[in-house]
């Protein structure tokens, strides 16, 4: 099976070109491909499929590393756009379908901007990590997020994210991505994330949008740009006139063929 590997600020993906619809993905196949020892290794899989609906020519079929489906992946969308342009399948402003609706992407040199579902801050819940329980803002970015601000006494680097944070499953019946945030200034934050279905990742685009939305809300602003530092680099999130744009680097690093029998799929 032909694949490419790409990442956006260290959030990495196996891309499977499948414009003729020959690939049948299963949770087991996705989990095997994403296995960092037995497979290729990635935080998720992006199947590049055709779309026939008029609004877009392509469908971003995103799967988390554990084989679960998610509505949206912001970094994945940037890597998906990088693939379409590199493969000569699209140029200029690119539109493609996701499970959260149509997405527009614009290539700006090394960076790619993607128009995201405008984040909706809709409630308050908690996450528990060991002995630390934190209140957080629930944010919908097409997929669910819980944005937890850290007290100044708890350094971001000190968190043990090798284990999943506990959360209120009545509040988030479909699971949640949990962001831990340390402010740098009003419009500059640092974050780490524990992703639903992928564990700790180096970056999360929808998570950055959720965190930026909470930062702007806390500053009493509707519009503005927030810089979000993640372990894998930096992205920016711009809110303007009701739109939300995620911008950051997206690169393809390899391509090849994976032997499905050898990886036990
Ligand atoms: N890394 C992604 C988010 C991927 C989906 C997430 N794990 C979920 O289950 O909602 C991003 O860049 O947005």
Automatic annotation (TrEMBL):
It is an enzyme of class 5 (isomerase). It holds the Pfam family DAP_epimerase. Its EC number is 5.1.1.7. Keywords: Amino-acid biosynthesis, Cytoplasm, Isomerase, Lysine biosynthesis. It is found in: Cytoplasm. It catalyses: (2S,6S)-2,6-diaminopimelate = meso-2,6-diaminopimelate. The record marks 145, 195 as: Could be important to modulate the pK values of the two catalytic cysteine residues. The active site is at 73, 73 (proton donor), 204 (proton acceptor). Pathway: Amino-acid biosynthesis; L-lysine biosynthesis via DAP pathway; DL-2,6-diaminopimelate from LL-2,6-diaminopimelate: step 1/1. Substrate binds at residues 11, 64, 74-75, 143, 177, 195-196, 205-206. InterPro entries: DAP_epimerase_AS, DAP_epimerase_DapF. Belongs to the diaminopimelate epimerase family. HAMAP family: DAP_epimerase. Homodimer. PANTHER family: DIAMINOPIMELATE EPIMERASE (PTHR31689:SF0), DIAMINOPIMELATE EPIMERASE, CHLOROPLASTIC (PTHR31689). Catalyzes the stereoinversion of LL-2,6-diaminopimelate (L,L-DAP) to meso-diaminopimelate (meso-DAP), a precursor of L-lysine and an essential component of the bacterial peptidoglycan. This is Diaminopimelate epimerase. It comes from Phytohabitans aurantiacus. The lineage of its organism: Bacteria, Bacillati, Actinomycetota, Actinomycetes, Micromonosporales. The gene is dapF.
């Amino acid at each position: 099976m032909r694949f490419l590997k790409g990442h956006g600020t260290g959030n990495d993906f196996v891309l499977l070109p499948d414009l003729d619809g020959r690939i049948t993905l299963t949770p087991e196949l996705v989990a095997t491909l994403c296995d960092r020892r037995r497979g290729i290794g990635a935080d998720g899989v992006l199947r590049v499929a055709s779309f026939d609906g008029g609004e877009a020519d392509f469908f971003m079929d995103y799967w988390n590393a554990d084989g679960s489906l998610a509505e949206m992946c912001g970094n994945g969308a940037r890597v998906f756009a990088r693939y379409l342009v590199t493969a000569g399948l699209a140029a200029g402003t690119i539109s493609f379908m996701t499970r959260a609706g149509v997405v527009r992407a614009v290539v700006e040199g090394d960076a790619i901007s993607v128009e995201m579902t405008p984040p909706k801050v809709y409630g308050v819940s908690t996450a528990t990590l060991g002995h630390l329980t934190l209140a957080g803002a629930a944010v919908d970015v097409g997929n669910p997020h819980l944005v937890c601000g850290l007290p100044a006494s708890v350094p971001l680097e000190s968190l043990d994210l090798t284990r999943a944070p506990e959360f209120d499953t009545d509040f988030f019946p479909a699971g949640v991505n949990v962001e831990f945030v340390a402010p740098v200034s009003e419009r500059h934050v640092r974050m780490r994330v524990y992703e639903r279905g992928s564990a700790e990742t180096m970056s999360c685009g929808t998570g950055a949008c959720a965190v930026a939305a909470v930062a702007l809300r806390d500053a009493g602003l509707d519009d503005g740009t927030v810089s979000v530092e993640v372990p894998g680099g930096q992205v920016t999130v711009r809110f303007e006139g009701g739109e939300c744009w995620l911008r950051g680097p997206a690169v393809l690093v390899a391509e090849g063929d994976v032997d499905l029998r050898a990886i036990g799929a």
